[in-house]
Design brief:
The protein is mostly helical. The chain has one domain (20-172): Ferritin. Helices cover 70% and strands 0% of the residues. The protein has helices at residues 3-13, 26-56, 62-75, 77-89, 98-104, 119-144, 147-171. 34% of the residues are buried.
Length: 181
C-alpha cells in the first residue's frame, strides 16, 4: 500500500483527528462531524451546480437568471466556510474538495447540457432537496446534543428557503400549482 493510500485510509477511518477541549462528548462530536461533512458535500455540490447554470444560461431571461444564479451561488460561500470551520472546532477534519463533495453529495447531478426552459426548475429542485437534507440534520445534531451545530444548520436552511422563494418567484406563471393535482 502506498503512503498516500495509507494516509487516505487512516483519514477516512479517523473521524476526530484533532484534540480539543470541547465539552461535547467524543461520540457526539463524531456523529455531528459526519452530519456536517455530509452538509459540506451537499452545499459544495449545490454551489457548483448553480454556478454551472449561471455560466450556461441563455435566452431572453439571460440577464435576470445570470444574476440570480450568481447571487445564490455567492450566498453559499459563507455557509460552506462556516460548516467546515464547525467541523474543525469539534475536532473533526473537513472533507471539502470537489472530489469529496461529488462522492458524498445527496444531490442529483445537473444535466451536462441542460434545457434552458428547465434550468430554473432544476436548480429549484436541488435547492429544495438540500434544504430538506439540512432539516433532517438539524434534528440529528440537536438530538445528538449539539444545539450550536443545529443552529448553524437552521440559519443555512433559512437562506436556502429564501433562495427557493426567489427561484419560484422568478418562474411564477400565475397559476396555482396545487390546483393541477
Amino acid at each position: 500500500m502506498s503512503t498516500q493510500s495509507r494516509r487516505s485510509t487512516v483519514a477516512k477511518n479517523r473521524t476526530l483527528p484533532f484534540q480539543t477541549r470541547h465539552d461535547l462528548s467524543a461520540e457526539t462530536r463524531k456523529q455531528v462531524c459526519l452530519s456536517l461533512n455530509a452538509t459540506l458535500a451537499d452545499l459544495s455540490d449545490l454551489r457548483s451546480q448553480v454556478k454551472q447554470a449561471h455560466w450556461n444560461v441563455k435566452g431572453p431571461s439571460f440577464f435576470g437568471l445570470h444574476q440570480l444564479f450568481d447571487q445564490i451561488a455567492g450566498s453559499l460561500h459563507e455557509p460552506i466556510d462556516s460548516v467546515a470551520e464547525r467541523v474543525l472546532s469539534l475536532g473533526g477534519f473537513a472533507r471539502g474538495t470537489v472530489r469529496m463533495a461529488a462522492e458524498h453529495s445527496g444531490l442529483d447531478e445537473l444535466p451536462a447540457e441542460f434545457r434552458q426552459e428547465d434550468i430554473v426548475g432544476d436548480i429549484a429542485d436541488r435547492v429544495a432537496h438540500t434544504a430538506a437534507l439540512l432539516r433532517a440534520r438539524i434534528d440529528e445534531t440537536e438530538d445528538a446534543g449539539d444545539k450550536v451545530s443545529a443552529d448553524l444548520l437552521t440559519g443555512i436552511t433559512a437562506s436556502l428557503d429564501k433562495s427557493l422563494y426567489f427561484l419560484e418567484a422568478y418562474a411564477f406563471r400565475g397559476e396555482d400549482e396545487s390546483s393541477k393535482h
